[in-house]
Amino acid sequence: MASSREQVPRDIRLVDADTLVGLRRKGESIGLSGRWSSDQLADLLPRSILFPIRVILINNATAPVSYAPLKGSCYRCLVATPSQDGTYSQFQIDLDSVDFETLELMSSQDLLKLTHFLLESVKIEGVELS
After folding, report:
1. The whole model's pTM is what?
2. Which domain holds residue 25?
3. Any domain includes 3
């Protein structure tokens, strides 16, 4: 396990549905938490896109102490998923930090697109973005 001084990674990674379901199954097998079960994720997530995922905190307090294969820290992550109405929703999932680090980094161009999308959805009184 990492030290208590470990910094939360700031990078945003990308994960496909099948990989996310597999990581959730691994987490379920060792007692890591997540809002949705692997079966629910398999049913809910579209297979044709990549989902942005980021670490929101290092959650070693909930990591099972007896699980030797947890090679790193327990990362509480936030996954953004598209909704049918064109907006995004988010859910939490705990991952081994080693698994998180294997995920593809979000490119600068994709991060810029995501930022533009998110800014367009924010309404600021008296300001119109176009």
Report:
1. 0.77
2. 12-120
3. no
Q: Is position 129 within any domain?
A: no
Nearest partner of 97 among 81, 76, 78, judged by Cα: 76
Asked if 58 and 6 count as a contact pair (C-beta separation under 8 A), the reply is yes
Structure tokens at 29: 């097998």
Amino acid in position 31: G
Contacts of 74 (CB under 8 A, 6+ apart): 32, 58, 59, 60, 62, 63, 94, 95, 96, 97
**pLDDT 10s per residue in the chain (130 long)?**
444 567 889 999 999 999 999 999 988 888 887 888 899 999 988 888 899 999 998 876 555 555 555 677 889 999 988 777 777 788 999 998 899 999 999 999 988 988 887 777 766 777 665 5
User: Could you tell me the two tokens for 2?
Assistant: 């990492």
- Sorted by sequence, the CB contacts under 8 Å of residue 28 that are 6+ apart come out as 34, 37, 38
Q: Nearest CA to 77 among 38, 23, 116?
A: 23
